[in-house]
Amino acid sequence: MTRLDIGETIAERRKALGLTQKDLATHLSVTDKAVSKWERGQGYPDITMLNDLARALDLPMADLMRETSDQGQSGLVVETVTPAPISIPAPGANPAAMATADEPEPLPYDPEPAMAKETRAPLASRLRTWLAKRSPMIVHIVRLVFTALCAIAIAVCVIVDLAVTGGITWSAIVIVAVLAGWLPIMMVLPFSRMRLLAAAPVLGVMTVVLLETIRRSFDGRPPSEGTGFWEFWAVAGPPTLIGAVGLVLMVLVLFFVKIRLWYRLALLALLGGVIDWLVETSVADAMGQSQGIADAWIDSTLYALAAVLLALGGAALSRAPKSKLAVAIADVEDNLQRAGQGPSRAPAIG
């Protein structure tokens, strides 16, 4: 006699993926109390949601419905009774010979137990579990390595600049450019949508600092003695501001707007078209180029067409929720939502 230890499997996989009971309940449209009852063996999920449960836990159905020996433990008991075949001897046949012929041939020896084969997780699932356990260490290593590379790049450029020009000239651009990339990345890791939202305006400010550093490097006049400052920022200021605001809006749409992924992508395409049109027209107006305005309208039309195609694709997939592409998009959407919630503090499975 065997039992289906679904509750234990749900608890192990949920913790290994860094999900709370509430996260899993939200994905399955049930209450967290129901998930708690499943894991404690006081109830079982409805058979109609087993496919969704297996997909949420990144498990094959066979691993979700794994069987364990029933040794006094409570669980969903499944008893299988196989009736023995009945052989009726023909008149005049030897009963002893028939008994020998009906005996099954011995199976070849298999050193790996059948239970180990059934319960072994796929390679991708084991890799995700390994990464989930070690994600803080991996993030720490990435931050250290990236910081070291940035420091080496700055040091090399400063040494070369001092050796060639005898001062800090073009290397100032490199220093500010490296810092403009280093600071937002340090803010984002470990990744969460709130960290990304905070890093977007910082990236805009660092872009302004970088552009001003470039202007000072190529303009031999101090800002107080000439019109270089106003001439430069009359052209570079509006697109820089538009780009910074647009980046913040894109982060909000991607992680905070509660619509289907396809429609979010369509909304991002529309937003990208508006940002592109504003940037190109502001630069064209500042430089007096009418051709730039015409190019801006063409680019915005292409963005709008992409948005329409994405919206139509999402509507078509919503009518076929069981298709492979729809299931893959749903998995991407779940991973995107899970990543945006930041690092989980669920205990690791030993």
3D structure, described in words:
With 350 residues, the protein is mainly α. The protein has 3 domains: 1-78 and 113-121, lambda repressor-like DNA-binding domains (434 Repressor (Amino-terminal Domain), Orthogonal Bundle), CATH 1.10.260; 130-255; 257-341. Helix content is 69%, strand content 3%. The chain has 14 helices and 3 strands. It has helices spanning 6-16, 21-28, 32-39, 50-56, 61-64, 95-102, 114-119, 123-165, 171-188, 193-218, 228-256, 261-287, 290-318, 324-340, and strands at 2-4, 67-69, 76-78. It has a 3-stranded antiparallel sheet with strand order 2-1-3, with no helix packed on it. The protein is flat. The model is unreliable at 67-81, 109-120, 222-227 and 343-350 (pLDDT under 50).
Features:
350 residues, mainly alpha, 3 domains, 434 Repressor (Amino-terminal Domain), disordered C terminus, 3 strands, three-stranded antiparallel β-sheet
Tally of helical segments: 14
Task: Sum up the overall morphology in one term.
Answer: flat
Q: Could you give the distance between the termini? A: 29 Å
| Uncertain stretches | 67-81, 109-120, 222-227, 343-350
Rg from C-alpha positions? 31 Å
Strand order of the largest sheet: 2-1-3
Helix content: 55-70%
**Number of DSSP-assigned strands:** 3
By secondary-structure content and strand pairing, the structural class works out as mainly alpha
